[in-house]
C-alpha cells in the first residue's frame, strides 16, 4: 500500500506542477503518441509477465524462454513503430506526433526487457522490492526529469523524457532483483505453453486496450490536441485511484487467486472480500470527486483547464463502474477463462467505438457519457461471468459492495451541502479545493464510524482488524468497538 501512496502522490504532484507550466496541447500530443506506444507495450509483453506468475511449476528454461519471446516481439514492434510513426502523424493531421512516437519507442524496448523480471518479483509477492522499483522510478525518473525540463521550456519533450526515464530506472532495478537471462534455443513445448496462456492474456489485453483508448483516438482524430489534452487530464485524474488502488490490488490478487485456483470456495471468499474492501475505500472518493469536480480541476491545474470539468465529472461515474470491473478480470484469468474475457472485450470495443463516434460532435463530455454506457455493459457481462464461475449470485455480489455505496452516498450529500452553502462566497479555487478535501475526509470518517453496523456490515471491522495495528492502542480499541456497535 505504501508503494501505491508514493506513486499516487508523486504522479499527482508532478501533474499539478507541470499542468500550470505546459498548455493542454502538449498533454494532447503525448496522449496521441501513447495510444500507439501503450498498445505496443502490451503486445511486446505478450502476456509473459502474467504467464510466469500464473504457472504452478516454473523452471529456469521457462523463464529464459519467456524472456526470449518478450525481447523478440519487442524488437519487431519497435521497428514497426518507427515505420508507422509518420503515417500516424499524417492521420492525426499533426506532424509533431511522429517524432514523439519515435523517441517514445525507446521505452517500449526497455519495458520488453524487464517484463519477465517484474513478473517473477510479483510471483514471489515481494512487495517491498516492487515498492523500491516503482518508487525510485517515479520519484527520480518522472518527477525529477519532467519538472526540470518543463521549467527549462522543453514543452512536450519534458513529458516524453520523463516517461522514458521512469521505464529505464524501473527496468534496471528489476534486473538487480531478478537478473535478465534468455535462451537462443527455446524448447517448442515451453513456447507452446507460454504462448497458449500469454497469447490469450495478450489478445484480451490488446482488445481491452483498444477499448480503453478508443475515446482518445476519436477525440484526437475528430477534434484537436487541445480537446484531447483536456480530456486526457480529466481521465488521468479519474484513473489515479483506479490505476493505483485497484490496479495494485489486481496484481496482488492475481498471485493470490492463482494459489487457490483449485479451491472455488476460497477463491470466492478472497474475491468478494477484495471487492468489498475496495468499494469501501474508493467509492466515496469517486463520488466526492464528482461533486467537487470544478474545484478539483481549477484548484489543482489552474483556470486554463476549466474546459475539462464536465468530462471529469462524467468520467467519475465510469470510475465507479470500472473499479469493480478491474478486480474481476484476475479471478477470471486465474480460473483459466481468458478467452471468455477476450470475447467480452471485443464486444465492448465495438460498442464503445460506435458510441464515441456518435458522441464526439457534441464534445468531450458527450464522449465521456459514451464511455460510461459501454463500461456499464462490460461490468454487467464480466460480473455475471465471475458470479457463474464462482457459483455465487447477484444478491451476494451487490451485498458486498453495499457498504461502499452507502458511505459514498453519505460523503456526496455532505459535499453537496457544503458547496451549496459556500457557492459564490469564496473566490479562490485553491481554497475551495482545500475546504472540499477536508469536508470529504471528515464526512468519510464520520460515515465510517457513525453509520449503523446493520447498514455497514463487517467490512469496517475487517479493515480495522487488518490495518488497525497502525493506530495507537486506545484509538484502535475505540474504533473497533465503534464499528462493531454502530449508532442505533
Tell me what the structure shows.
This protein is mainly alpha-helical. The protein folds into two domains: 1-186, no CATH class; 222-451, no CATH class. Helix content is 84%, strand content 0%. It has 19 helices and no strands. The chain has helices spanning 2-19, 24-45, 48-54, 60-92, 97-123, 127-151, 156-177, 188-222, 225-259, 264-291, 293-301, 309-334, 338-359, 364-389, 394-422, 429-450, 453-456, 459-467, 473-485. Helix 1 packs antiparallel against helix 9 (225-259) and helix 2 runs parallel beside helix 9 (225-259). It is globular.
Secondary-structure content class? mainly alpha
Poorly predicted segments: none
Binned, the helix content reads over 70%
Beta-strand fraction estimate: under 5%
Order of helices and strands: HHHHHHHHHHHHHHHHHHH
- The overall number of domains is 2
Largest sheet: none
Q: Which value, in Å, is the CA radius of gyration?
A: 23 Å
Number of helices: 19
The general outline is globular
Give the mean pLDDT: 82
Alpha carbon gap, first and last residue? 33 Å
User: How many runs of DSSP E, i.e. beta strands?
Assistant: 0
Amino acid at each position: 500500500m505504501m508503494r501505491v501512496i508514493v506513486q499516487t502522490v508523486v504522479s499527482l504532484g508532478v501533474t499539478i506542477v507541470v499542468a500550470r507550466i505546459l498548455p493542454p496541447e502538449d498533454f494532447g500530443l503525448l496522449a496521441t503518441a501513447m495510444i500507439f506506444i501503450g498498445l505496443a507495450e502490451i503486445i511486446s509483453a505478450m502476456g509473459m509477465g502474467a504467464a510466469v506468475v500464473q504457472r504452478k511449476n516454473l523452471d529456469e528454461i521457462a523463464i529464459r524462454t519467456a524472456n526470449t519471446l518478450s525481447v523478440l516481439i519487442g524488437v519487431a514492434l519497435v521497428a514497426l513503430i518507427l515505420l508507422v510513426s509518420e503515417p500516424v502523424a499524417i492521420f492525426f493531421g499533426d506532424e509533431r506526433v511522429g517524432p514523439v512516437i519515435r523517441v517514445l519507442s525507446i521505452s517500449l524496448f526497455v519495458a520488453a526487457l524487464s517484463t519477465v523480471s517484474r513478473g517473477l518479483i510479483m510471483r514471489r509477492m515481494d512487495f517491498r522490492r516492487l515498492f523500491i522499483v516503482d518508487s525510485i522510478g517515479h520519484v527520480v525518473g518522472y518527477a525529477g526529469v519532467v519538472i526540470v525540463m518543463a521549467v527549462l521550456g522543453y514543452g512536450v519533450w519534458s513529458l516524453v523524457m520523463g516517461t522514458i526515464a521512469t521505464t529505464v530506472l524501473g527496468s534496471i532495478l528489476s534486473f538487480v532483483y531478478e537478473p535478465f537471462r534468455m535462451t537462443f534455443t527455446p524448447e517448442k513445448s515451453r513456447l507452446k505453453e507460454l504462448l497458449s496462456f500469454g497469447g490469450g492474456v495478450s489478445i484480451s489485453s490488446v482488445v481491452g486496450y483498444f477499448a480503453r483508448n478508443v475515446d482518445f483516438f476519436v477525440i484526437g482524430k475528430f477534434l484537436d490536441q487541445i480537446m484531447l489534452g483536456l480530456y486526457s487530464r480529466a481521465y488521468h485524474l479519474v484513473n489515479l485511484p483506479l490505476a493505483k488502488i485497484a490496479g495494485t490490488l489486481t496484481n496482488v490478487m492475481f498471485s493470490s487467486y492463482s494459489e487457490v485456483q483449485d479451491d472455488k470456495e476460497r477463491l470466492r471468499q478472497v474475491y468478494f472480500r477484495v471487492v468489498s474492501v475496495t468499494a469501501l475505500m474508493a467509492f466515496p472518493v469517486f463520488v466526492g470527486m464528482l461533486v467537487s469536480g470544478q474545484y478539483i480541476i481549477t484548484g489543482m491545474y489552474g483556470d486554463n483547464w476549466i474546459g475539462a470539468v464536465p468530462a471529469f465529472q462524467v468520467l467519475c461515474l465510469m470510475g465507479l463502474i470500472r473499479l469493480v470491473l478491474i478486480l474481476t478480470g484476475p479471478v477470471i484469468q486465474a480460473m483459466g477463462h481468458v478467452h471468455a474475457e477476450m470475447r467480452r472485450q471485443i464486444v465492448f470495443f465495438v460498442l464503445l467505438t460506435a458510441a464515441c463516434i456518435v458522441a464526439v460532435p457534441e464534445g468531450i463530455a458527450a464522449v465521456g457519457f459514451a464511455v460510461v454506457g459501454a463500461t456499464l455493459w462490460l461490468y454487467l457481462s464480466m460480473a455475471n461471468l465471475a458470479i457463474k464461475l464462482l457459483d455465487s449470485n447477484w444478491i451476494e455480489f451487490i451485498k458486498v459492495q453495499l457498504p461502499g455505496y452507502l458511505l459514498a452516498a453519505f460523503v456526496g450529500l455532505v459535499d453537496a451541502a457544503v458547496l451549496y452553502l459556500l457557492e459564490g462566497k469564496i473566490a479562490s479555487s485553491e481554497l475551495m479545493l482545500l475546504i472540499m478535501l477536508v469536508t470529504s475526509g471528515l464526512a468519510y470518517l464520520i460515515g465510517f464510524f457513525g453509520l449503523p453496523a446493520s447498514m455497514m456490515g463487517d467490512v469496517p471491522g475487517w479493515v480495522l482488524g487488518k490495518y488497525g495495528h497502525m493506530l495507537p492502542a486506545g484509538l484502535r480499541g475505540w474504533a473497533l468497538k465503534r464499528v462493531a456497535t454502530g449508532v442505533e
